[in-house]
Amino acid sequence: MPAGRVLVRAEIALSEEERAHAARMRERLGDEIRSAGGWISFERYMETALYAPGLGYYSAGARKLGRGGDFTTAPEMSRLFGACLARQCAQVITALGEASILEIGAGSGALAADVLERLEALGALPSRYRILEVSGDLRDRQRRTLEERMPHLQARIEWLDAPPDESFDGVILANEVLDALPVVRFRWHPTHCEELGVALEPEGLVWEPRPASAALTEVCARLRVAAGGWDEGYVSEYCQRLPLWTRAVTRALSRGAVFWVDYGLPRRHYYHPERRDGTLLCHFRQRALDDPFLFPGLQDICAWVDFTLLAESCAPAGFRVEGFCTQAYFLAGLNVDVEMRQLADGDANRLARLAGEARRLMLPGEMGERFKAMAWLRDVDLALNGFALQDLRHTL
Ligand SMILES: C[S@@+](CC[C@H](N)C(=O)[O-])C[C@H]1O[C@@H](n2cnc3c(N)ncnc32)[C@H](O)[C@@H]1O
């Protein structure tokens, strides 16, 4: 989700409809804060701002992804990403025989279409392609994308409201979904720890500290040790729901692989003493914003992923971590150069365009290093091609 420079408030002009939407969301948040006694956790704020039925960023009708939206993801930027991921899926599907794919949070449907298109060419189509999606309007958009690009595969594609109950073999894909899980925000002091929540002042929504619970204080103390110490007033966030959520969405996979791709870091870099203000970020019209209270319901809110926490969540969910590397090495291991020529199909202009896209996906200053890929495996032995060129598991 690379975004341009940080936006300043004065540059933003909202439409009537957007203003009304943000006002309704503020009203909803205000009611919630008042009925909770004047304060809610940031985790609750983020959950409401992103997911409140009919109003939340992911539940309501904003355009969100791609050109004209708020941010651009790897599959929105290039078909190369899905083509490479398809190669990785093909390796797992071939090893398993009969297999399905479950994609979590499918955005515009571009990744699903790219993966299916390439898997078909590789002769490794899954028996089913299911999409777990919370957003009604993105679901409609995914349906349109897939009807247009893969009309002959419609019978294999279905949408789910909740993780599947019945077990299956195959692959789970989640690109840029973990960063949308609500996080708690904290501030560290040598003598105590505060949780930063949200209160209502006459001028609007504001940050307000409260003493952190004993459990959160203990978590922060552990993170601080892993990071090598923090100064007074160090602020960051923690995704306390990640272990249970990842377990719930992967529970039904009896044999196969889960691929998580997101921007994030191993714990000791994530909580580095110099990252004094955490990783919380908002996106609005292709720009980054640092104020999560500016346009509630209209802007995306996300935080980087602590990949050590994701790795710690793996064994309790019944998997083992089979790979962890940067997106650049993941795509290189999946023969991005071969996929580039395949997609260019002999057209020199197309090849040049794809080479530019590959640079954006892979260069360290673009998405190549900030984004990481992690694989979990259950009940299958495979040396996954995507992780053949780099193994960063020792950094977790
Ligand atoms: C940043 S977009 C990424 C979309 C797509 N994976 C891509 O790479 O273009 C996040 C996606 O996850 C979905 N999403 C957010 N939270 C979710 C959750 N808790 N469960 C399932 N999907 C979720 C959003 O509606 C959206 O489709």
How would you describe this structure in keywords?
single chain; 396 residues; alpha/beta; 8-stranded mixed beta sheet; 14 helices; globular; binds S-adenosylmethionine
Describe this structure in words.
The protein has helices spanning 16-35, 42-51, 74-77, 79-96, 110-121, 136-149, 214-227, 242-250, 267-270, 307-312, 327-333, 336-344, 348-362, 364-368; strands at 40-41, 100-104, 129-132, 157-160, 168-175, 184-188, 193-201, 204-211, 234-238, 253-265, 281-284, 287-289, 300-302, 305-306, 320-326, 371-378. The strands form 3 sheets. Strands 2, 3, 4, 5, 10, 14, 15 and 16 form an 8-stranded mixed β-sheet that branches. Strands 1, 6, 7, 8 and 9 form a 5-stranded antiparallel β-sheet that branches. It has a 3-stranded antiparallel β-sheet with strand order 12-11-13. The mean pLDDT is 93. With 396 residues, the protein is of the alpha/beta class. The chain is built from 14 helices and 16 strands. Bound molecules: S-adenosylmethionine (SAM). Residues 58, 65, 73, 75-76, 104-107, 111, 132-135, 138, 175-177, 180 line the site of S-adenosylmethionine (SAM).
Q: How large, in whole angstroms, is the Cα Rg?
A: 21 Å
Helix percentage range: 25-40%
Mean pLDDT: 93
User: How much β-strand is present in the residues?
Assistant: 15-25%
Largest sheet: 8 strands, mixed
**Broad shape:** globular
What small-molecule ligands were found?
S-adenosylmethionine
Q: What is the count of β-strands?
A: 16
Structural class: alpha/beta
Series of secondary-structure elements, N-terminal to C-terminal: HEHHHEHEHEEEEEHEHEHEEEEHEHHHHE
Low-confidence runs: none
